[in-house]
Every structure is written in structure tokens, then in C-alpha cells.
Amino acid sequence: MKLSLWDTAGQETYKSITRSYFRGASGALLVFDISRHSTFISCTQWLQDLRHIAEDGIVVILVGNKTDLTGASSGSNQRQVTQEEAEEWCRMNNVVRYVETSAKSGDGVERAFLEVAERIYRNIETGKYDLNDRRSGVKGFGASGGANNGVPRTVTLGMDDAMRKGGNGWTGGCC
Question: Which is the CATH superfamily of the domain at 30-126?
Fold first, then answer.
């Protein structure tokens, strides 16, 4: 499985551009900063945009980032959005899962990506997507979307490649 990722930054300035990335999307990580309630509030509009423009039944995972600002190591708890509040928002908005992460330390990041990838893969297995439809964000095996000649495919989800390169798999920061 190949995932194409776009960080749209969630800024109003780029909203018209980011909407073009939603077309054909089969999955999304809707990320907010747990130390800034306003970013959580913005998720409602971003979700509406996603559902209006992206594939029907897009897999959406809500991600609360910056958990590193809530623990003892941070010196203070800067959390403005509780886990319970985010989980309730997911229930009210039919979002499949809530995950908390720290882009700074990498905690939970792999889990968020695996969650969306696994759910997209399940949708592929159940025939939810037309793998030959070029408008779809999901393509069939190979570049042409053709058959696999009866050879079983294996999909491995994880950070193996990044770890083999000697890193911890995470660089930079996020929201």
C-alpha cells in the first residue's frame, strides 16, 4: 500500500488550495493541537469540507497532537482539549477513531497512520472502492490498476524502512 500524504497546515489562507487535495482522498488524519482549543473547534469545518469533496465514506481519524505538553516532563499541563471531549466529538461526527500523538517525540504517530491505512485496506478488501476508477484515490495493484495474476500480495504496515536507515523515523515537527 502506498500512501500519499499532504500536510495542509489548516490555515485559512490556504483553504482553497487544500480543498483540491481532498478530491479522491480515501482517508484523512484530522490533526489538532490539544493545547489550543481553537484548533479543535476548526476540525468541524475541516471535516465538513472533507466529506463534501473527498470519496464517499472517507476514513477519518481525529488526532490530538502535542501530548508532550501535558505530562510531567513538560513541567505543566497545557491541555485545553480532554480526551473525553475529543472522543465525544468523534461519536457525534461519525469519525471512526481518536488517537493522541506527540510529533515532537513520535509517540502515537505511527499508530495514527497505521489506523487510517488499515481501515482503508479493509475497505479495499470488502470491495468498497472501484480500483479501476482513475478518479478514486485508491488504485488497483500496479500503476494500471490491473489484475495481480493470482500472486498473493503482502501489505506490511510499519516503520521498518525508517528504522533500517538508522533513525527513529521522525524528523521535524508538526502543529
Answer: P-loop containing nucleotide triphosphate hydrolases (3.40.50.300)
